[in-house]
Design brief:
Layout lengths: L1 H18 L2 H4 L4 H13 L4 H10 L10 H9 L2 H24 L1 H6 L3 H29 L6 H8 L5 H20 L4 H33 L6 H30 L1 H23 L5 H4 L5 H19 L6
Helix pairs in contact: 1-3, 3-12, 4-8, 4-12, 6-8, 6-10, 8-12, 10-11, 10-13, 11-12, 11-13, 11-15, 12-13, 12-15
The chain binds fe (ii) ion (FE2) (2 copies).
The site of one fe (ii) ion has 6 residues, from helix 6, helix 8 and helix 12.
Length: 315
């Protein structure tokens, strides 16, 4: 009874997020976008539901206006700029890395519905990469002849966990699928790293705190706020998808897949903490946040998702 009335209360907020265009996304809170994942845990959408959600939630990087972002950038303090750049370097490089490594997942997809959904995700990740490229060129105005040289300039050099995750684990598992697309263990390990560790735990945590800080500062009319909220809405579909794949795998063969997912997560846990740690604690404290607070949020989110998948990390 209580659950039903809570769900009824949520419906208008969810419907608003589902339909919002870029300008309307400026009025939407990230926590309302994340509700999609929690609702998905109670009432899992099908792969084709997620595909249809993708069709109706299209947006274009070229529709964003970075004018207010640029104006603010010119008057920002050096500490504000350093803190912003640290987070966005992780994101920009991360979006490019997940774009580069997704194709083998499509090849290894065990069903046509999964193949179709993953193909929509490839387009999303490419769009997210272009979003950051445009922000850099128009707001920071870094000089670079092409995307490769810009990415080389901004590649994060301080977070060891990040390097291991994005330059070893992710390409490594993608290569295993490329070498043998019928390797279902590789596919399940890949979804655990990509959709649960990188997207559900790292990306959505970073997005939530960045967007909430921008909202507190009154920056919701910025092109970055609107675009990044659209990115988070895309990520909520990807995370729903990843949870569904792993939930089905665990139901189908718990003895084979539950330990595989658990082992992968335990290996990745130190990398999560290592990625969320800023080189200067003021990058968080200046905005009223702390490393512990982000880590706590990341772990709470992770545990909720693991509960839906049907495993825990206690083993
Ligand atoms: Fe993305
Ligand atoms: Fe994603």
């Amino acid at each position: 009874m209580e659950l039903k009335s809570r769900r009824e209360q949520l419906e208008p907020a969810l419907a608003r997020v589902a339909r919002a265009d870029l300008r309307e996304l400026g009025d939407i809170r990230i926590d309302d976008v994340l509700l999609f994942i929690d609702r998905g845990l109670e009432n899992m959408p099908s792969y084709m539901d997620l595909y249809r959600r993708w069709e109706s939630q299209q947006w274009a990087v070229s529709d964003l206006d970075f004018g207010p972002d640029r104006e603010n950038w010119l008057s920002a303090s050096q500490l504000d700029k350093d803190a912003t750049l640290w987070g966005r370097r992780l994101f920009f490089t991360g979006e490019e890395r997940v774009t580069a490594t997704l194709a083998p997942f499509v090849w290894a997809a065990p069903t046509p519905e999964i193949e179709v959904f993953l193909s929509t995700q490839m387009v999303d990740e490419a769009r997210h990469t272009v979003f950051f490229d445009r922000w850099w060129r128009e707001v920071v105005q870094t000089e670079a002849p092409d995307m490769r040289s810009l990415l080389e300039q901004v590649r994060p050099d301080v977070n060891e966990g990040y390097n291991t995750l994005f330059y070893e684990r992710l390409p490594g598992i993608a290569q295993r699928m490329a070498s043998d697309p019928r390797d279902l263990d590789a596919f399940i390990e890949g979804i655990t790293i990509y959709h649960i560790v990188v997207e559900a735990t790292l990306a959505l945590t970073g997005q939530r705190f960045e967007l909430e800080s921008m909202r507190e500062l009154g920056f919701t009319h910025f092109g970055f706020y609107q675009g990044f909220t659209a990115v988070a809405r895309d990520e909520s579909r990807h995370v729903n998808f990843g949870i569904k794949v792993l939930q089905e795998a665990v139901r189908q063969d718990p003895e084979r897949f539950a330990p595989l997912i658990q082992r992968t997560l335990i290996e990745c846990l130190p990398l999560i903490s290592g990625t969320l740690e800023p080189p200067d604690p003021r990058y968080f404290t200046e905005f009223g946040r702390s490393h512990e607070e982000l880590l706590q949020f990341a772990m709470t989110s992770l545990n909720k998702r693991l509960h839906a998948i049907g495993i825990n990390l206690a083993a």
